[in-house]
């Protein structure tokens, strides 16, 4: 059973998500929040598997709530809701520990898949969307880049794997690209996350762009 908290300031949006999850086997909605502060309270109280988090909410917004939850409750995953016109918010949410994001007009089947992926400890990184958002934000003038020396602990192969993760490739796709087994690909990804102290693949993507390992490309 995947336990979910829904955080959105629009009651109709929460009702729609709840209806979907209540009619699907394997999901339980354990709480609803209309603002970020309440979302944090519910996460602390129920320790859900996933918090579905809207960004724009009154008072404590979704970004601040995401940072608090991910810092205080490492076992709770955050799946952020967003729209195309808030690219920088998505980037900040990933930096804050979110495990991925969805657009508000996502197909219901995709939402269910996303919740399962995130609850299983993976990051939801759609190559056609996530990479574009991060690249666009990282390319903006004045964006701060950490010292590339932060990657000094990685081997050449681990750097290569990290770059592929930043490209949105799954472990199976990385294995095919490098002609290695999926198990070996998973091991490489796990080692990179351990060495860099990354929570999950989403944060690896952020670090890859921030460090300059992957160069932003305008599409």
What's the mean pLDDT score?
83
Walk across the major sheet and give the strand order. Answer: 2-1-3-4-5
- Parts with pLDDT < 50 across at least 5 consecutive residues: none
Helix content: 40-55%
Strand content: 5-15%
Q: Provide the structure class.
A: alpha/beta
Q: What letter string, H or E per element, gives the SSE order?
A: EHEHEHEHEHHHHHH
Task: Give the distance, in angstroms, between the N- and C-terminal Cα atoms.
Answer: 40 Å
Rg from C-alpha positions?
A: 17 Å
Oligomeric description of these chains: single chain
Major sheet? 5 strands, parallel
| Shape summary | globular
Number of separate helices: 10
How many DSSP-defined strands? 5
Description:
The chain is of the alpha/beta class. 49% of the residues lie in helices and 13% in strands. It is built from 10 helices and 5 strands; from the N terminus they run βαβαβαβαβαααααα. It has a 5-stranded parallel β-sheet, with helices on both faces. Strand 1, helix 1 and strand 2 (27-33) form a beta-alpha-beta unit. Helix 6 runs parallel beside helix 10 (201-210), helix 7 (156-166) packs across helix 9 (182-196) and helix 8 crosses helix 9.
Summarize, please.
Keywords: DNA-binding, Phosphoprotein, Transcription, Transcription regulation. The chain is of the alpha/beta class.
Descriptive tags:
CheY-like_superfamily; transcription regulation; Sig_transdc_resp-reg_C-effctor; alpha/beta; five-stranded parallel β-sheet; globular; 10 helices; 219 residues; DNA-binding response regulator; single chain; phosphoprotein
């Amino acid at each position: 059973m995947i336990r979910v908290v829904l955080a959105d300031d629009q009651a109709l949006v929460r009702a729609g998500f709840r209806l979907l999850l209540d009619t699907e086997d394997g999901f339980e909605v354990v709480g609803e929040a209309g603002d970020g502060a309440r979302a944090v309270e519910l996460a602390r109280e129920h320790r859900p598997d996933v918090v579905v988090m809207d960004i724009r909410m009154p008072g404590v917004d979704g970004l601040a709530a995401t940072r608090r939850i991910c810092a205080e409750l490492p076992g709770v995953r955050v799946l952020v809701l967003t729209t195309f016109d808030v690219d920088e918010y998505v980037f900040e949410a990933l930096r804050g520990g979110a495990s991925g994001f969805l657009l508000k007009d996502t197909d219901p089947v995709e939402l269910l898949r996303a919740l399962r992926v995130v609850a299983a400890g993976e990051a939801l990184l759609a190559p056609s969307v996530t990479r574009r958002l991060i690249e666009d934000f990282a390319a903006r003038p004045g964006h701060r880049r950490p010292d590339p020396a932060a990657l000094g602990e990685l081997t050449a192969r681990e750097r290569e794997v990290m770059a592929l993760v930043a490209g949105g490739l799954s472990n199976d796709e990385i294995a095919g690209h490098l002609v290695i087994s999926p198990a070996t690909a998973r091991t490489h990804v796990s080692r990179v996350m351990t060495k860099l102290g990354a929570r999950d693949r989403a944060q690896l993507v952020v670090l890859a762009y921030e460090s300059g390992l992957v160069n932003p490309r305008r599409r």
